[in-house]
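S1.2 Input.
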Amino acid sequence: MKLKQLLKKFILPLVALFVFCLNANAQTVTVKGKVSDDKGLPLPGVTVRLKGTNKGVSTNINGAYSISYPGTGTLNFSAIGYIPKEIKLTGQTEINVVLPEDNQAISEVVVTALGIKRDKRVLSYSSQEVKGAELVQGKDPNIVNDIAGKVSGVQITSSSGNPGSSTRIVVRGASSFYGDNNALMVIDGIPIDNSETGNLNSGPGTSRIADLDPNIVESINVLKGAAATALYGSLGANGVIIITTKTGSAGKKATVSFSSDFSSENPLLPQIQSKYAQGTNGQFYDGTTLKTSTSWGPLMDTLKINGQAAKKYNQSDLFFKTGHTYNNVVSINGGGEASNYYISYSNFNQQGTVPTTSFIRNSLFAKYGAKILPNLTTTFQLNYSNSQNDRLPEGWALESPVWTIFTAPISYNLLPYENGDGTQRLYRYSRNNPYWVLNNISNKSGVNRFMPTFTADYKPLKWLTVTERFGADVYVEQDKYHESANSVSNPNGRIVVNNANFRQINNDLIISGNHQFGDFNIDGVLGNNIFSQYTENSYANGVGLSVADLDNISSASTVSYSESHALVRRIGFYLQTNIDYKKFLILSLTGRYDGSSVLSTSNNFYPYGSAAASFIFSEFFSKDFQDVMNLGKFRVSYATVGGSNVGAYSLTTPYYSQTIRNITFPYQGQSGFLLSSTLGNPFLKNERINEFEAGFETGFFNNRISLEASYFAKKTVDGIIPGVSIAPSTGYSGTTVNTGVMQNKGIELLLTVVPVKTRDFNWSVTMNFTRTRNKVLNLYGDLQQLGNGFTSLIVGQPYGIIYGTRYARNAQGKLLIDAGGLPYADDTQGIIGNTNPDWTGGFSSNLRYKQFNLSFFFDVKKGGDIQNNVDGYGYFYGTPKVTENRGPRVVDGISAVTGQPNTISVNGQAYYQRINGITESVIQDGTYIKLRNVSVGYTVKPLWLKSTPFKTLNFSVTGRNLWIYAPHFTGGDPEVSSFGASNGAQGIYSFSTPTSRSIDFSLKFTL
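S1.3 Output.
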């Protein structure tokens, strides 16, 4: 009896516990396997999720996965572009899955205006995406340069090879006459500033997009037309660059990734003569007892100095150095069941080819997303960067060392740069010795920048989402220019201090919904935007440095100071509706009502919007035909958007501090101000852009071949024209008006082909083509021409015409020759060039064979004139390569004296010094073909890494600007625009720091 009680009391519970433990142990099962497509190729990045839970993983580069489950359940396999699949779990430990391609998916989901994700297949406007991996492959510190030539309809022009120099990005041609034509930059739904800042002397500054680390970018999507950008209001009138940053992976253990890059850069130099010494008319000047700026002396091969053969000095090789760039990035990626995080730190250090120049950037990026409630998700991110830029003056400024290097005689040794008494050692009577500049002139810029963003998505209903997104862009910039005493341009020395504070705040409250009504699927967006931008700038100029080697403005004997403040506010209300009927007919309607603080009270609120439609005719194809042509789509849109390209307080007529005769105020303690000579216009309204767009998209053989073609026609009306002349009787010289009219028309083509796609070998090719035609239709009344920097605006001509001194010609176009046998300038100036290219294009190829990959990219531009000032001024000095031909010549032309063909012979010096004064002589065709990028890489097999701490390991070598074919251009790089990203600084090549040819070595691994 006692035994039975003992069994009941102890043994049976023990047995039950044993069975429970066995059962508990049996509940946890790990299943492994591979996911491939219907051709047997592994599919990386496939989401493998345990249905009904937050537990999930992604397949690796070989399509492999591993996930644990409690004995039973359902696994869901999904990937964009593939038909999802579910597998019942009943204790299996290995499951291999094949996901067929979804013929209905054209490519993938892309990020559009306001950060809204949409299926590219149903978009009713043109956009083009570039993946982050492709951007990083370019190895450029400025992410904009990495998309140059890759996106149709977009023209990107770098300004200089100086580290950190600005870049101009224009979508579908210039839309504003004098306002900013650069595309709007948006990071994760928040507009950011991309102003050009930092330069206190001649030459370009830095585009502030350079503060962004390209390694944190997941993708870039370019919204080109007004229909695509209407939701951004007047900010998006010039196109929008949508930048999406990387996000952590939920339900994934932390992984640590590290990449390290090292590159060397060598300058691309203009063609300089290497035969003739310093002097004039064949007579030698030694630069010491006889000085001159010209190199029209004797042949170096025949020149002897003190009985010895003269030594040649290759000034460029001696001055420029091999630049070096170091870039190290470490990131952590992971997340829990209801959260994700991504943290990245990068250190970028670029030492330029001009000694003492550099760009150093330290960036920290952190993003954390969490599911607070089942229907509430939040994301917070912070992007912080600190950049330090050291540059030197460029262009034709007297302080520019590049000018002197390109024009210095090869017979003169520029070192040492000082005489025994400490004065500069010069071979001519003006311009600083370039080596003296390196040690006595500096332009330093430091920027601390914060870009926080907070987003909350709340779903009160399954089909309704409320989004609150707040973001800011705040930076403080400190710039300082120092020029020591004894400088040729400022003998008493000069210090400039410039401090800038920038604060931009953007808030969007968005209500979005999606609902199915029978055959109709309707989604809508209703929102409010509040935008505020504050700038504060203080500028101090000190001259007459009384204390040597004291780099402080307090050492200046005279200091002038100015400060400015500007606050601009915008408020907008917007609505967008997309109606999808049976997945083949899509109608999209957008409306926005904006208010701007910079416009007159009678015009400061203005409406605009868009209507767009897509017809996907491939939905009517049979299943068999869809296997051949899986997509066919027509799209058409019309949109009107506004651009308030008006500076703060432009409606009024301000007072300015004055200089009267030789008296500059403040004078003897007395301030002096007068009204501006330009009358403010209190009735200014926004510019308006009306655009029509039509497109055609096709996909064949599951998008192995895809083609996108677009035509656009946009017209700017009410264009803002500042400074037009008015009657002097008003007391003013000019005013600002809303009278400009300009049009842009063009076509864009994008072709993608995947000729080979197997397990071991994959090859894809992408080509794009853009042809844009621009014309200025009206300026102001009968006014036919206005200046715009180095270019001109002329009615009936394209935007960006080069207007200047031209050759005198007869009615048949032949050069007129004077009595001395030389051509001469016409009495009146005229059109001598057009900076706009005839067309642009790009060709990229990506090949992968097993673990090896090879990619290369060609960038092509046909036409687009350049004013080559290196040759222009060099003609006088005798330094361009072409001046090596100095023998007598008879210039082909008609004698203005006799009317007969010219027969008078002249020497090379007389000829080139004559055409030095004729700008037309240095207008060169900027056609080029660039092998912009070549990359070779190897990814180590994961199988080989099993016994190591590495999960992935990759090596690559990348070359940039390896080959440039520019048959009509004699400078180093026909892409450069020497004076920055502004409208009027395009199409000029003038003694800027040369761009570089570089080789980059990269190592990447994941732990």
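S1.4 Remarks. The CA atoms of residues 483 and 844 lie 46 Å apart.
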